[in-house]
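User: What would this chain look like folded?
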Amino acid sequence: MRGLFFLTCLLFVVSCNNDDATDIQNQPSTIDLSDYFSINFSALPNYSDQYIPVYITKDNTPGNNSITNEGATLGRVLFYDTNLSTSNSVSCASCHDQSNAFGDANNVSQGINGQTPRHSMRLINSRFAIENKFFWDERANSLEDQTTMPIQDHIEMGFSGENGDLNFNDLIVKLNTIEYYPELFSLAFGSSEITETKIQQALAQFVRSIQSFDSKYDDGRILVNNDVQPFPNFSAQENLGKDLFIQPPVFDASGSRVNGGVGCIGCHQAPEFDIDPNSLNNGVIGNANGIGTDLTVTKAPSLRDVVKQDGTSNGPFMHIGVSNNFETVLTHYDQINPAGNTNLDPRLTPNGIGQQLNMTPVEREALISFIRTLAGNDVYTNEKWSNPFID
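Assistant: Here's the prediction, encoded as structure tokens.
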């Protein structure tokens, strides 16, 4: 099984006292990491000093966990390693696929013990947002906290310590027996000691390094002073879609749009296209299994790379994976039904009534055309975000 090397010498390290462990950590490496990974450890990929456009100002990186090349490299290995599940069959990358903008092609994500209740969100540009909370229901207070919650979930990766599962300390013991991990933790943190905090920091560094700023939108935004100006590289249709996205709608007393745009920017803020932290439920109140309601959903990923440049979906939309067709997203927001939703965002209820945007076919096509301009290319193929293991 990949990566499982139960070496007598490493088992001894786990059981020895701190002084002995320190002595062993200071000894020269006896393994060649190139036997396991397609990574040039003499010239690590650039994670720490990537290009960020001047108009991007949001950054949720905490002061105690800045991205380093060594830390993100460890995070990349952890992200793709199926050893982080009790069955050795599921990794973070199983539900966050690079070819889908680090999202999931399944309607709801599959763990080692069955289906999870929700669809895994895309991880593109997780760093560039005001929102510090993660998961659809915002139950994690930071990206660092979020990274190990799936590992400790009975359905997802199994180290829950409940229902007969192994616990997280069992995972740490397991990682200590895998030959390359003490070496990688030493590289990232200066010590081979493996802790949950270090795992969280490394995974968060890798996830925050995943960025997409090579889109048609970015090519145009750098040429103008603000998003309201027409982008010189956009078609008339794309500029119309941008205007519709940005301009607020004007409603009559019955909640029907009579003028203006459709106001997507009210919740999805350009140029990062992250979610407003104050956003409430978006009107999707169903569960993936079709039973009951869910009024607590407030989190959404960046709209960057929600589709590819050709319009192909990067997995189903919404937390229950309702459809792969972006047209259904527009249909949902076109006619909001507030019945039974006590947590509905007030921006969707003008005059206390569910909004009726009444989008025309021309407007729908223009919006879809604009959304496609938010997709890049590099993030889907760049090797530094790919599976590092040698098969």
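Residues 119 and 378 are 24 Å apart (CA to CA). If you want, I can go into more detail on any region.
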